[in-house]
Amino acid sequence: MKGRRVSELHRFLFDGAPVRGALVRLTDDWQALLQRRQAAGGYPAPVTALLGEMAAAAVLLHSNIKFAGALVLQIVGDGPVKVAVAEVQPDLAFRATATVVGEVAADAPLADMVNVLGQGRCAITLDPRERTPGMQPYQGIVPLVDARGQRLGRLSEMLEHYMRQSEQLDTCIVLAADERVAAGLLIQRMPTAGAGNLAGRAGVEGEVPGADEDFNRIALLAASLRRDELLTLDADTVLHRLFWQEQLLRLVPQGQPLQPHFACTCSRERVASMLQGLGVAEVESILAERGEIDVACDFCGQHYRFDPVDAARLFLDQTQQPPGSERLQ
Ligand SMILES: [Zn+2]
C-alpha cells in the first residue's frame, strides 16, 4: 500500500498547545498537471520537484487562511529557472508552471536554479476574487537569503523565512515532490491573541517568536519527517509516526470536504481581454505577420486561436463591454 491515489488535505490542532498543522498529498492531480506539460517537452527533474513542492506549499498556505481569492506563490529566479509559479483557488484547485531559460543539471540544487547570484525573490500574493476599483492584491516579497546573507538552499527554508519576516509567524514546513507525488507538512504557531490560547496563555504584545516550548517540541517532531517518508507513506501513518505522543485533534470539514485538484482558470474570454489590452495596432501587426493569433496557456497547454474575423470582433465588442469585466464574475 503506497497511500490513496486521490489528492488529500488534512488539517489538525494540538490540544492544549497553540499550534496548528496541515498535511497535503497531491497524487493523480499532480501527475495530470505534469502530463499537460509533456507536449512542450516536460520539465527537468529538479524543476518538477521544485514545482511540486511549490504546489503542495501553496495548498498548505491557502488552507491556513480564510481568503476568497487566489493565493499565488511565485519565485523569480536569477538562474536558468526564470520564474516558477503555483496558484491555489479557495476550492483548492491548483495549477503551476515554470519558465526554464537555461540548462538545469540533473542534480541541480535549488540555489543553482533560482538564486545563482543571491538575487532570487520569493513572493506570495493574495489576489481577491472580486476586486473593487483601485484595490491592489496583497503581496509580500522576501529575498532568498537568510539574515546573514547566506543563500537559502530549500523551498521550505524560504517559506519559513518568509513567514517569520513577513507574517511574524513561527512555521515549520517539510516538502517533497517527484513525478508521482507532491506532498507537504506544515506546523504553525497560532497567532497568540484571541481564541488560540488553549493553554491559557495571554496574547502578549512583543512576545518573542520561537519562545514557545510547545511549538518548538512539535516543530522538532515535524522536522524529523524524512522526504522519502513524506512521498511514500499515507497521511494517517505520517501523523501517527510523528505525533503519537501528542493530543492531535483532526479538523473534520463540515459538508463536502475540499479536495485539492488540478484545474486551470484560463478561458477564451480572459485571452480576449488580454488581446484587447494589447490594442488594435499590436493585434493587427501579429495578424499581418502570422495570419492568426495562437495563444497557449502556460499552465495547462490549452490553445486559444483567433483568426482575423475573431480579432476584428474583439475590438467591435469592446465598446459595449469594457476589457476585464469578466474578471468580476
Ligand atoms: Zn490554462
Summarize the structure.
The chain is an alpha+beta fold. It contains ten helices and 13 strands.
Describe the protein's architecture and organization.
The protein has ten helices and 13 strands. The chain is of the alpha+beta class and 329 residues long. It has two domains: 255 residues, Hsp33 domain (3-Layer(bab) Sandwich), CATH 3.55.30.10; 53 residues, Alpha-Beta Complex (CBS domain Like). It has a six-stranded mixed sheet with strand order 7-6-3-4-5-11, with helices on one face. Strands 8-9-2-1-10 form a five-stranded antiparallel sheet, with helices on both faces. A hairpin with a 4-residue loop joins β3 and β4. The two termini are 43 Å apart. The site of zinc ion (ZN) has 6 residues, from loops. GO terms for molecular function: protein folding chaperone; unfolded protein binding. This is 33 kDa chaperonin. It comes from Tepidimonas ignava. Keywords: Chaperone, Cytoplasm, Disulfide bond, Redox-active center, Zinc. Pfam families: HSP33 (PF01430).
Describe the secondary structure blueprint for this structure.
Blueprint: E1 8-14, E2 19-26, H1 28-38, H2 45-63, E3 69-76, E4 81-88, E5 93-100, H3 110-114, E6 121-128, E7 138-143, H4 155-167, E8 171-177, E9 182-189, H5 213-223, H6 227-232, H7 235-243, E10 248-251, E11 261-262, H8 268-278, H9 280-290, E12 293-296, E13 303-306, H10 308-317
Parallel strand pairs: 5-11
Antiparallel strand pairs: 1-2, 1-10, 2-9, 3-4, 3-6, 4-5, 6-7, 8-9, 12-13
Zinc ion binds next to loops.
